[in-house]
Amino acid sequence: MRNLKVQVLERVLAASLLLLAVSPATSRAEASLQEMVNDARSTLANFIADPDMVWFRDNISEARAVLIVPTMVKAGFIIGGSGGGGVLIARDSETGLWRGPAFYSLGAGSIGLQIGIEAAELVLVVMTESGLDSLLSTSFKLGADASVAAGPVGAGTGAKITTDIVSFARSKGVFLGVALDGALIRSRDDRNEAYYGRAASPADVLIRGTVVNVNAAELRADVSHATSHGP
Length: 231
Fold this sequence. Notes:
The chain is an alpha+beta fold. It has one domain (45-227). α1 packs across α4 (189-196) and α1 packs parallel to α6. It is globular. It has 6 helices and 9 strands, in the order ααββββαβββββααα. Strands 1, 2, 3, 4, 5, 6, 7, 8 and 9 form a 9-stranded mixed beta sheet that branches. β1 and β2 (82-91) form a beta hairpin.
């Protein structure tokens, strides 16, 4: 009996030590992801407030989802690439409520940003159900699995755009015509797990709504507000 009690105590102690060892790393990861969520709020606000973003403001109310990449970093000069992490917020087709975020990474292969641009903010407005379905997969290529077009900027941009995804990029207040055909978008289940404290796929977060982080409530509210003020 004594040996059994000792074994139980040893297991409890080992589990406690493991928890102490893991918790700080988990907390740091969640804090880093929360910073990305907060940065996504700032990026969205920047796009909404810009007077040249007429089409963006007038059409985001029709969006099925919005992917926000707060920092798209250039990896090389002219020939190289660019990449960054982002968050996806999606609208429930039945209730109209917004869910998320789910975490993603975007790599633009050899496309890169414009000469002299080292980093940019990027927003992808997902206009169709098929565009959202593509984002629910493990990975997909823009232009191949979902059509993409650079969004119009400035006045007189009221033309209808028939594409799955419309992209906008800006750097220091200047809008960029970044071509994203061939860019690879990957879901990041590891980041979802760190942020929600359990394994979660994009469908769990965005469609089924089985996981929620209250710390993302303000981002969801920002997207909801932006999309409820159409023309």
